[in-house]
Automatic annotation (TrEMBL), chain A:
It holds the Pfam family DsrE. It comes from the Bacteria. It comes from Rheinheimera aquimaris. Its main location: cytoplasm. It is found in: Cytoplasm. Keywords: Cytoplasm, Transferase. This is Sulfurtransferase complex subunit TusD. Belongs to the DsrE/TusD family. NCBIfam families: sulf_tusD_dsrE.
Automatic annotation (TrEMBL), chain B:
This is Sulfurtransferase complex subunit TusC. SUPFAM superfamilies: DsrEFH-like. It holds the Pfam family DsrE. InterPro entries: DsrEFH-like (IPR027396), Sulphur_relay_DsrE/F-like (IPR003787), Sulphur_relay_TusC/DsrF (IPR017462). Belongs to the DsrF/TusC family.
Automatic annotation (TrEMBL), chain C:
Its main location: cytoplasm. It is found in: Cytoplasm. The lineage of its organism: Bacteria, Pseudomonadati, Pseudomonadota, Gammaproteobacteria, Chromatiales. Part of a sulfur-relay system. This is Sulfurtransferase. PANTHER family: SULFURTRANSFERASE TUSE.
Length: 120, 118, 111
């Protein structure tokens, strides 16, 4: 069994990265490995926005990711500074349901408890 | 404590990757990981004094590279091939870096627990 | 936008109460910001404020508490470079309060 940490840094709307991360996470859990946390940084923090408005025929991957993490009790964290800089969250604007604000310091400390870090 | 390498690949002009990689490096070093930084490809432009020009227009974050020693980040590298391919001289670089060949880079990568690409 | 009045002149603040324009800073502005932080400036306070300004000029970033302690210990000795001393001067958080009085941007929340 391997303990994975996932780091998402690319824009999940503009690329396939979020779909790949979700695929990887689902398969890992299925195969008996664990996902210790998923951390969103750089442009990946756009996934934490509550305001994405997608037409019905486009997959809402960020909602799917939040659902998956909730099911498996995986902390789904985003860098609050990166999100504030991009206007994803503000003092009056909450993140999307299931996404938890965190700091880089928390990400740094969590690196000790994983076997492998996978970046998308 | 983990050996963590931040692999920088982007110029300071095209996106915020370099700027945010710096914050990541400092955060990792602050909790006592052994952090290395490698500037590859267009990321070597982050090391030029160009970023000190007033018309750079973005935050002059590369000046914070001088913080590395305060954070005990001593392994700061640049890819020799990337530097020479862009017609740059090591003397032009703003901070002291160790230049690595492709073979050195392979050895560096294999000595890490984790590599974060930005 | 929020502002602070110094010598009859309105100085704009950002939404966190920090100076909106770094170049608006002078000692009178610092005094006014110190009042807002409920701090009476002494020589010891000024030393820290000038130290974080110098730090910003050199590194283009406001120091987080851990680094402020370390840098002050290196330059001014361990009796000033420790968090107990700094918290005595700035009880609500040295990095937060000293950088505000120094007219610098708010230090990043996540570091």
């Amino acid at each position: 069994m391997t303990r994975f940490g996932l780091l998402l840094t690319s824009n999940g709307f503009a690329s396939q990265s979020l779909a790949s991360a979700l695929h990887f996470a689902k398969t890992s859990v299925q195969m008996g490995h664990s996902i210790e946390h998923i951390f969103l940084y750089q442009d990946a923090v756009y996934c934490a926005s509550a305001d994405n408005d997608l037409p019905a025929d486009e997959p809402d991957l960020s909602a799917e990711l939040a659902y998956f993490c909730q099911q498996h009790h995986i902390p789904l964290l985003f860098c609050v500074t990166a999100a504030e800089k991009r206007g994803v969250v503000t003092a009056v604007k909450q993140p999307k349901h299931g996404y938890v604000a965190a700091g880089l310091a928390e990400f740094a400390m969590r690196q000790t408890n994983i076997d492998k870090l996978i970046q998308f | 404590m983990r050996n963590i390498l931040l692999l920088q690949q982007h110029s300071p002009f095209n996106n915020s990757n370099g700027r945010e990689a710096l914050d990541m490096a400092l955060a990792l070093a602050a909790v006592e990981h052994s952090v290395s930084i490698l500037f590859c490809d267009d990321a070597v432009y982050q090391l030029l004094p160009t970023v000190d020009q007033p018309d750079f227009g973005l935050k002059q974050y590369p000046r914070s590279f001088k913080l590395f020693s305060l954070y005990d980040i001593e392994q700061v590298y640049a890819c020799l091939e990337s530097v020479t391919a862009r017609g740059l001289e090591p003397a032009q670089l703003n901070i002291a870096v160790t230049l690595l060949s492709k073979a050195d880079i392979a050895a560096l990568l294999s000595s890490q627990h984790q590599v974060i690409t930005t | 936008m929020a502002e602070i009045t110094v010598d009859g002149k309105a100085i704009p603040l950002d939404k966190h109460g920090y100076l909106a324009n770094l170049q608006d800073w002078n000692t009178a502005v610092a005094q006014a910001l110190a009042v807002a932080e409920q701090i009476t400036m002494t020589e010891a306070h000024w030393e820290v404020v000038h130290f974080v300004r110098q730090f910003y000029v050199e590194f283009q970033t406001s120091p987080a508490i851990r680094i402020l302690v370390k840098a002050m210990a290196q330059q001014l000795g361990p009796e000033k470079g420790n968090s107990k001393y700094l918290f005595m001067l700035f009880p609500q958080g040295p990095a937060k309060q000293a950088t505000r009085i120094a007219g610098l941007p708010k230090p990043a929340k996540c570091l």
